[in-house]
Design goal:
Layout: H1 3-16, H2 24-40, H3 45-62, H4 70-85, E1 101-107, H5 113-126, E2 131-135, H6 143-154, E3 158-159, H7 165-179, E4 183-187, H8 196-209, E5 213-219, H9 225-237, E6 241-245, H10 254-263, E7 267-271, E8 279-281, H11 284-291, H12 297-307, H13 310-321, H14 327-338, H15 343-347, H16 355-358, H17 364-375, H18 379-383, H19 390-400, H20 404-427, H21 443-460
Parallel strand pairs: 1-4, 1-5, 2-3, 2-4, 5-6, 6-7
Antiparallel strand pairs: 7-8
Helix pairs in contact: 1-2, 2-3, 3-4, 4-11, 5-6, 7-8, 9-10, 14-17, 17-19, 19-20, 20-21
């Protein structure tokens, strides 16, 4: 979504890299490019003026700093302003002392409100809560059926009854209390455009259930219209946070960068795809890091922790850090990585990834080639790739429907990855010291190791075999395991 803005801002940094100090003329030139980048990203004009003014004020003062060079100063200042534009701090959900905690979902028709309600229910369930969904959108045909279908995928019950939406919401609250549910999510009706009837209905529902949180669902693709929509709903409902849907689209990002400045409420959650699990809590600092090319290893770790089997991940991480990781282990971990979503999205979270690699077409089909090659190997060959001679490589290539060059590349890449992992093993030892840890890798050490992996791969230009990485263009072997 932020690709164009990211390219622009990273270009600003690259242009001034190596300058010892920033003159006022340098600052003016940088600000002109930043202003253009934000306007092209469809950010609200008044927001752009305010942000550019703040950057100028800080940048002029930073020219006197001797601690950082020019590019570091610009990155620091722009990063701080991006974080502020995106909401500042991550919204922390606090729960009602007397359950249930009531969440009201509001928004225009077509914004993805019903799907967002189901995704939010899944998130609450992953936090150890017991949510109940209320289908109060009784105007749109099949809206309640859609909610039931989505809720069934995540194992969350739905309450709804025909008639008056306000009465349905009130009865839903009573049902949540009766069932002992600690979170109630109310899906309300929308319209194609803002009108008085819709606003009155959602305001009446809000009065009936007294929500602890009111989230406005905004389609990230609507650009400048997001501002007027947010203002209209906030005037009637007092919005607590924004839920951005379709963040994975090709919109320019103006909605995400404008809403906080206009209504003073943060982006709370974001949907990053169509799948029910393509959803995450919004972290302004992490998103700013992605825009500026700094990566987002923390989100990558969290995604891995959600999909990886704990015991298997622990064993794999221990074998990896001890240098005993085999192609058999690698194949098993590939299956886990595929659960984390599109690989191209995971690449974008790693720091130091070149533009060519982020824009490369990296899909599941390429991973299937790697799987086919490994599955064509014998058990002994997977455990000891060094025994794979010329005739074996020919047999493996024929069995996997690939070329011998593909087999050679995978074996070479795997050897390079093992070398990197051994370096990580030293970093993940006790207190970051050298040598093998006597205890199993703990959560803290492996998180540290993942951060080091990001730095390590960034320094080498990316994952082996991927465009821009060591080994040149070719089929990516996949990703190493992510321990908990």
């Amino acid at each position: 979504m932020f690709d164009s803005l990211s390219d622009r801002l990273q270009g600003v940094v690259k242009k001034i890299r190596g300058k010892g100090r920033l003159t006022e003329a340098d600052v003016d030139e940088i600000l002109a490019e930043i202003r253009t980048a934000l306007l092209e990203a469809d950010v609200n004009v008044s927001v752009v003026r305010e942000v550019v003014a703040r950057i100028r004020e800080e940048a002029i003062g930073a020219t006197e700093s001797q601690a950082l060079d020019a590019s570091q100063q610009v990155v620091k200042i722009v990063n701080q302003q991006l974080v502020a534009m995106l909401g500042g701090e991550t919204l922390k959900i606090t729960y009602a002392s007397q359950p249930p905690t009531v969440v009201l979902m509001a928004g225009l028709q077509g914004s993805g409100k019903t799907t967002s309600a189901a995704k939010l229910a899944r998130w609450f369930k992953s936090q150890g809560r017991q949510p109940l969904l209320v289908g109060a959108d009784l105007q749109r045909p099949a809206a309640v059926e859609q909610l039931r279908t989505l809720a069934g995928q995540v194992g969350v019950p739905v309450f709804s009854e025909p008639g008056d939406p306000v009465a349905t919401a009130r009865r839903g609250l009573e049902e949540a209390k009766r069932l002992g549910k600690d979170v109630l999510i109310v899906d309300t009706a929308g319209r194609l455009a803002i009108d008085e009837e819709m606003m009155r209905q959602v305001a009446d529902i809000s009065a009936a259930v007294s929500p602890d949180y009111t989230f406005l669902v905004i389609d990230a693709m609507i650009g400048q219209d997001a501002v007027s929509t947010a203002e209209a709903f906030h005037d009637r409902l007092s919005i607590d946070g924004v839920f951005l849907s379709k963040l994975d689209g090709d919109a320019r990002g103006g909605a995400a960068l404008s809403v906080k400045s206009v209504i003073g409420r943060p982006i709370a959650f974001a949907a990053t795809g169509e799948r029910i699990d393509a959803f995450e809590q919004f972290h302004p600092d992490r998103m700013a890091g992605r825009i500026l090319g700094m990566g987002d290893v923390l989100s990558l770790i969290e995604q891995a922790e959600q999909v990886f089997e704990k015991e298997e991940a622990e064993k794999a991480a221990e074998r990896l850090l001890e240098g005993q990781f085999t192609l058999e282990d690698f194949l098993e971990q590939l299956q886990q990585v595929k659960k984390m979503g599109p690989i191209s999205g995971l690449v974008g979270m790693l720091p130091g990834m070149p533009k060519e690699m982020k824009n490369a077409e990296i899909g599941d089909d390429q991973v299937k080639v790697t799987e086919a090659i490994i599955r064509s190997m014998t058990k002994e060959e997977r455990a000891r790739p060094e025994i794979i001679n010329g005739s074996r490589r020919t047999r493996i290539a024929r069995g996997s429907g690939t070329e011998v060059a593909d087999v050679n590349r995978l074996i070479k890449q795997f050897a390079e990855m093992q070398k990197m992992m051994k370096r990580m093993g030293a970093l993940a030892g006790p207190a970051g010291g050298k040598g093998k840890s006597k205890s199993k890798p703990g959560k803290v050490n492996k998180r540290q190791a993942m951060r080091e992996l990001g730095d390590l791969l960034g320094g080498q230009g990316g994952f082996p075999g991927m465009p821009g990485g060591p080994g040149g263009p070719g089929t990516p072997p996949g990703f190493p395991p992510f321990g908990r």
